[in-house]
Amino acid sequence: MAAPKVAVVGAGVIGLSTALCIMETCPSCSVTILSDQFSPNTTSDVAAGMLIPHTYPGTPIHVQKQWFKETFAYLFAISNSAEASEAGIHLVSGWQVFKNTPEEELPFWSDVVLGFRLMSEAELQKFPQHRFGQAFMTLKCDCPPYLLWLEKRLKATGVQMYTRKVADLWELHSEYNVVVNCAGIGAQQLVGDKKLFPVRGQVLKVRAPWLKNFIRDGDGLTYIYPGIHRVTLGGTREKESWSLSPDPGTTKDIFDRCCSLEPSLRGAQDIKVKVGLRPSRWCVRLQREVLSQGGLKLPVVHNYGHGAGGFSMHRGTAKEAARLVGECIAALQGSSSRAKL
Ligand code: FAD
């Protein structure tokens, strides 16, 4: 069989990282990315990019932990290299604070982030409305630079990228041997997945260079995440809302909530508002499927549905998707050599 031709549909953090992992595990593959949008116009560009996992109820915890560990180790190595600034990856320390003690004092990822500990009474004095807190150091991606860095690496390995909206994965069967579906919320229409739904998120990106520590309310709704150039203030979680228009009332509400956690934010400047649709699902869809029509077959690998945690898990799920692509190619090679006998 000649160099296997693989199409990756989608150019958010999941599509780009999956294409990179495929090139790393199968350098003889010819990989093409097809996407109707590229950075800076994807959901991934809107994200805060913090590595703090959200739990997927339908995925075993040990699997989620493995995905997070792999992602953390990958980005930690970048943060510790000369590439860190271009890739927009940096370490950040801070606090997750709770109004009441959570049922689970030690989250499953507490031994993956660095220096996880419970907050001291002295630290909690900074948050008079909160009674319990966790302090740790994690990684943050500045999302548009990270996506551009991934694109640059892909181009350097010979991956082609084309702007194209795919209406049906089957339309790719005559051009490619394997198709990888990383369409994010677009997968709802692309493969008719009724279990996938949008969770709208609105965030503010502000200039507040004096803020160095992250602060996250344990309910996950209000957060302050300092990046290299801007601080992300969040947020909202609106299930089944498809609106991409910023809502001015929500902007004020987010700003007020963040100022009550960190009063110095009243001096923040240059407020920009962004909206994105988290591709949410009971579990990430990470599996092989074989499409067939009229006796012809097209192996597909799905990798979508990362909800609120695409950055936290991307490298782990990309590695698994690349492994599944390898299985598809091995199966194709097996059937083509059987056909020659
Ligand atoms: P996307 O980035 O949406 O990419 C999908 C790609 O598929 C796009 O390029 C799109 O154009 C393409 N596509 C879709 N349909 C088609 C089609 N039919 N044909 C061709 N191309 C198609 N996660 C974290 O881990 N940490 C955070 O701090 C964090 N903060 C967030 C804050 C907000 C406000 C939001 C909205 C999300 C946040 N997330 C965070 C979640 C994260 O953004 C997502 O999980 C992640 O971006 C999903 O990536 P994706 O590549 O699957 O989707």
UniProtKB/TrEMBL annotation:
Its EC number is 1.4.3.1. Its cofactor is FAD. GO terms for cellular component: cytosol; peroxisomal matrix. Transmembrane segments: none annotated. The keyword Nucleotide-binding does not apply. Pfam families: DAO. SUPFAM superfamilies: FAD-linked reductases, C-terminal domain (SSF54373), Nucleotide-binding domain (SSF51971). It catalyses: D-aspartate + O2 + H2O = oxaloacetate + H2O2 + NH4(+); D-glutamate + O2 + H2O = 2-oxoglutarate + H2O2 + NH4(+). D-dopa binds at Y223, R278. One of its GO terms (molecular function) is FAD binding. Residues 1-19 form the signal peptide. The keyword Oxidoreductase applies. One of its GO terms (biological process) is D-amino acid catabolic process. Residues 5-324 form the FAD dependent oxidoreductase domain. Belongs to the DAMOX/DASOX family. Selectively catalyzes the oxidative deamination of acidic amino acids. Suppresses the level of D-aspartate in the brain, an amino acid that can act as an agonist for glutamate receptors. Protects the organism from the toxicity of D-amino acids. May also function in the intestine. This is D-aspartate oxidase. It comes from Balearica regulorum gibbericeps (East African grey crowned-crane).
